[in-house]
């Protein structure tokens, strides 16, 4: 998977946030922020509340997420949900473990490194696309053009099948886990060039995540 200049909108690299739409459980959910700097996948409580999910599925979890501003947000639980990304007939479904927080955000989720590793997907903010492999070929999920209206007001979406449509808005912290992590050197020739991986990442995901980071080390380290 790769990107070319021909895929740039009007030939100009974008500086807008990359957000996609995906199915979470049976809910068509918009404004999912792709954030390669987040070591957890974040689900906001206001989004979860709209999904009508049995609260008994929420697992207890403790800790804090810390944004660039230094604001700490308490983790209120974790939940594993099926997530589908699709491009016409090309679709992939994976089980994603979300860290749940209760705070305002213009995004519904923050999809970080665990999501990217599980789907083996490649994001490009410049191209406003997320590419992902399927058995039938490479799919693409494209970000809506950024405007004040589509970031601050609900977006009308045509649902091709009977799904719930999730779209919330407010003010957003950029979140990343800072409670506990460990460092990994991605290039043996540059041992001081490291990335941090949270201990919240499931053990079965660490090896896959490290391989993804090594493959795209120019982006992450």
User: Which oligomeric form is depicted?
Assistant: single chain
Structural class: alpha+beta
Low-confidence sequence ranges: 148-179
What is the ordering of alpha helices and beta strands? EEEHEEEEHEEEHEEEEHH
The CATH superfamily bears the name Acid Proteases
- Average pLDDT metric: 77
CATH fold node name: Cathepsin D, subunit A, domain 1
CATH top level?
A: Mainly Beta
Question: Helix fraction?
Answer: 10-25%
Query: What is the CATH-assigned architecture?
Result: Beta Barrel
| Largest sheet, spatial ordering of strands | 1-2-7-3-6-5
For the largest beta-sheet, the strand count, sense and barrel status come to: 6 strands, mixed, barrel
Q: Give the count of helical stretches.
A: 5
Outline type: globular
Q: First CA to last CA: what distance? A: 20 Å
Proportion in β-strands: 35-45%
Counting DSSP E segments of at least 2 residues, the number of strands comes to 14
Rg, Cα atoms, Å:
17 Å
How many structural domains can be distinguished in the coordinates?
1
